[in-house]
Amino acid sequence: MKLGVFVSDFNLTVDTLDRLKAEKLGIILVQNGVYHATTKVSGKASSLLDKTQNLYVLSDDVQIRGLKVEDVDKRVKVVNYSDIVDLMFNDYDKTAWL
Amino acid sequence: MGDVKVAMIVQKPQYKGETSRLAITHAISYQTVEILLEDGETVTPKLCFIGEGVLGLQKGQNAMELYGITSTESHMKNTLLVDLDVLVCKEDLDKYGIPEDAMPNADEMGADKTIQVVPFAEIQKAIEEANHVMFF
Q1: What's A41's DSSP letter?
Q2: Within the 96-115 window of chain B, which residues sit less than 8 Å (CB to CB) from chain A?
Q3: Radius of gyration of chain B (CA)
Q4: Among B13, B22, B99, B117, which is least packed, fewest CB within 10 Å?
Q5: Which residues of B touch A68 (CB under 8 A)?
Q6: Digit-coded pLDDT (tens) for B104-116
Q7: How remote is the C-alpha of A88 from its chain's centroid?
Q8: What is the model's pTM?
Q9: What are the chain B neighbours of A63 within 8 Å (beta carbons)?
Q10: What is the CATH number of the domain that holds B117?
């Protein structure tokens, strides 16, 4: 299964994500999930960024919070709404929202 | 009744849910409440941000441009304009790597107050001194 997971919280969803198995896993950071891509806790990047190489963050949700696209971890691709629609239709069989 | 102190503690980040935003608007509404009180009665809120609540306070928010809603930054400026005490936990800012100068101010609007970045002990003191404590 190719699974795209929307992560919309900062600290609350990693345990659930650990249990999800997929041959291809994509993580799309939206809403407060964008902090995984921009914010280090005690100097350490979010462990969620180690779960897959397919990491995306929604640009609008970064900028609304006063964060900068330049602050996004280099492993994460910055995307817009249109890109997310393309991901959902072209890259993943199923999507989940955490 | 005298002075009723209220500590409003925000522990969730802004924007996804409404509760953290409501803490700010509720705190601002203390001025409206005063209209209904007798002489000598006051309500004094302190708005405190701890944990993930310190996220989403930074300057440069583009909420109106991107989503057509007022930003938390603009609400924070309004709290300062109405002379609210706003305390932000220094340890939590440090934990998330957010510099103190990223906190908004309302200097250009003529506010006398500024956001106070304080150790958690100060917020604990505000909680102990309050008649009512509300967590958001």
Answers
A1: B
A2: 96-98, 102
A3: 15
A4: B99
A5: 60
A6: 999 888 889 999 9
A7: 13
A8: 0.84
A9: 62, 66
A10: 3.40.1260.10
Residue given tokens 């006398």 in the structure block? B112
Its domain, for residue B89, covers: 3-135
**Helix axes B72-81 and B19-28, enclosed angle (nearest 10):** 20
Tokens (6 digits) for B56: 């989403």
Measured between CB atoms, which of B15, B52, B55 is closest to A64?
B15
In whole angstroms, give the CA distance from residue B103 to residue B73: 9
Chain A to chain B, count of Cβ pairs less than 8 Å apart?
Answer: 56
Contact of B11 with chain A, judged by CB distance below 8 Å, is answered with no
Q: Which region holds residue A42: left if phi is over 0, alpha if psi is between -120 and 50, else beta?
A: left
Cα–Cα distance for residue pair B39/B37, rounded to 1 Å: 7
Looking at A51-55, A84-88, B26-30, B70-74, which range is the least confident one?
B26-30
pLDDT of A13 strictly over 60: no
Q: How far apart are CA B42 and CA A57, in angstroms?
A: 46
